[in-house]
Amino acid sequence: MSRPAGRGSRRLTRWWRRRSLRTRLTVIAATAIAVCVFLAFQVASELLESELQDAAEDQLRADSRVLATDAERAGLAQVQLPPYPGSGRLVRVILPDGSTRTPAGQPALPPVSERAGRVAQGASADLMESGDSDDDGYLVYTLRADGGAVQVARAADDRPVNQFGWGMLLIGLLCVVGGALVGRAVARTGLAPIDRLTAAAVRVAHTRDLDADIPDEGGGEIRRLIQAINDMLAALRDSRRAQRLLVEDADHELKTPLTSLRLNVELLIRLDRRGTLDSALPAESRTRLLNDLGAQVAELSTLAAELTDLARGDVSDESTEVLDLADVVVAAAARARSRVPDIEVTLDVTSVWVSGRPAGLRRAVLNLIDNAGKWSPADQPVQVRLRAEGASAVLEVDDAGPGIDAVDVPRVFDRFYRADSARALPGSGLGLSIVQRVVDAHDGRVTVARSARGGALLRVDLPAAARDSSGETYRGTTSLPRL
């Protein structure tokens, strides 16, 4: 038996979920009004029935007292009984011997009950009996008088309550219909901003026009929803603009190395097909050409890796962990030997714990060392220092090069930006941009200044993690082999 009930409940739930919000609000409003009308009808019916019952009982008591007074004067056997009016009140006299008298032409009342008989015998002064359980449905009041009792009865009449019930039912139906119409109108008015919002969202989805902001209208939750969607559209516009710039810049940066690589490869293929490769290119020229090809392939590989990092943005599957930034710096310096030719790196790092992503931080430090290695003279090492300063981990990388011009400082972290003096050096102009993104993702700050040796000093401040460390310091020189 529970399975069909469960299936019916699930079907009802699915049907309800498929209804529109406007229909749901209409049904809820109509149902609420119907429940309120039903409860009001129940309470009013009980109150009306109680009032009618009290009024009928009071009238019976009053009539009984009048008849009892007459009986005391004339005697129960001789008292003149009021004639039957044809409807309404009925009277009866119970004589001391248990017999009864009734007016001529009056319908027969139910037999005298045992409790009424005891009243006539003097067991109690009066008795009110309800005929709800009787077939005849009378309300009978018995009052002791002159050794017997008098009774006044009234047939139970449910017509006022029934008429009231039909009236309330009609009013309830009108209220339910009116509530449904009002609920529909309120839902239409209240959901009008959402309808316009939906239409605007559909228009944006069809036209792909992210510049069309949705008009800010309504109040409260509707306004907050519209503002949230406009903020989302603004974020999408920024993301699309950033993607467009990235593609345009990548296209521009890839053209030169790809063109050079293609020309060199085509030259080798053409000479090889002619069989003049050995005669046209001496061993020294061939070695130089192959070295150029290797350098161009390496440059393209670096550019592709950096473009991939930038395209990912802040999206990464790498989890955040508490780590010793000194280990990251040492590992990055070790990897730099394959990136920076003919340069030395001196380390002066202290164990400092931070919360971050190891690979991202390692890439940022590697890019800093790589950038410094391009500018430092062959006899001047790149100096890398790491220390704890207050609640921050401070990383400094400086070189002995010419430094960064003041006009280039504001744009040094822009994508693909390269100063005029750096045009002839290898690189894509993405390294420091990646550093900026990684530092921002770790709630840090990166700044540019001039070092004491006259070169560039890049400083990274990261929030230190609350973890005890041994305070060990590593000082040394990492010699990078000549390539």
Automatic annotation (TrEMBL):
<dbReference type="InterPro" id="IPR036097">
    <property type="entry name" value="HisK_dim/P_sf"/>
</dbReference>
<keyword id="KW-0472">Membrane</keyword>
<keyword id="KW-0346">Stress response</keyword>
<keyword id="KW-0464">Manganese</keyword>
<dbReference type="Pfam" id="PF00672">
    <property type="entry name" value="HAMP"/>
</dbReference>
<keyword id="KW-0378">Hydrolase</keyword>
<dbReference type="InterPro" id="IPR005467">
    <property type="entry name" value="His_kinase_dom"/>
</dbReference>
<dbReference type="Pfam" id="PF00512">
    <property type="entry name" value="HisKA"/>
</dbReference>
<keyword id="KW-0843">Virulence</keyword>
<dbReference type="InterPro" id="IPR003661">
    <property type="entry name" value="HisK_dim/P_dom"/>
</dbReference>
<keyword id="KW-0904">Protein phosphatase</keyword>
<feature type="domain" description="Histidine kinase">
    <location>
        <begin position="249"/>
        <end position="466"/>
    </location>
</feature>
<dbReference type="GO" id="GO:0004673">
    <property type="term" value="F:protein histidine kinase activity"/>
</dbReference>
<dbReference type="InterPro" id="IPR050980">
    <property type="entry name" value="2C_sensor_his_kinase"/>
</dbReference>
<keyword id="KW-0812">Transmembrane</keyword>
<feature type="transmembrane region" description="Helical">
    <location>
        <begin position="164"/>
        <end position="187"/>
    </location>
</feature>
<dbReference type="InterPro" id="IPR004358">
    <property type="entry name" value="Sig_transdc_His_kin-like_C"/>
</dbReference>
<keyword id="KW-1003">Cell membrane</keyword>
<feature type="transmembrane region" description="Helical">
    <location>
        <begin position="21"/>
        <end position="44"/>
    </location>
</feature>
<dbReference type="Pfam" id="PF02518">
    <property type="entry name" value="HATPase_c"/>
</dbReference>
<protein>
    <recommendedName>
        <fullName>Signal transduction histidine-protein kinase/phosphatase MprB</fullName>
        <ecNumber>2.7.13.3</ecNumber>
    </recommendedName>
</protein>
<dbReference type="InterPro" id="IPR003660">
    <property type="entry name" value="HAMP_dom"/>
</dbReference>
<keyword id="KW-0808">Transferase</keyword>
<keyword id="KW-0418">Kinase</keyword>
<keyword id="KW-0902">Two-component regulatory system</keyword>
<keyword id="KW-0547">Nucleotide-binding</keyword>
<keyword id="KW-0597">Phosphoprotein</keyword>
<keyword id="KW-0067">ATP-binding</keyword>
<keyword id="KW-1133">Transmembrane helix</keyword>
<dbReference type="InterPro" id="IPR036890">
    <property type="entry name" value="HATPase_C_sf"/>
</dbReference>
<keyword id="KW-0460">Magnesium</keyword>
<dbReference type="InterPro" id="IPR003594">
    <property type="entry name" value="HATPase_dom"/>
</dbReference>
<feature type="domain" description="HAMP">
    <location>
        <begin position="188"/>
        <end position="241"/>
    </location>
</feature>
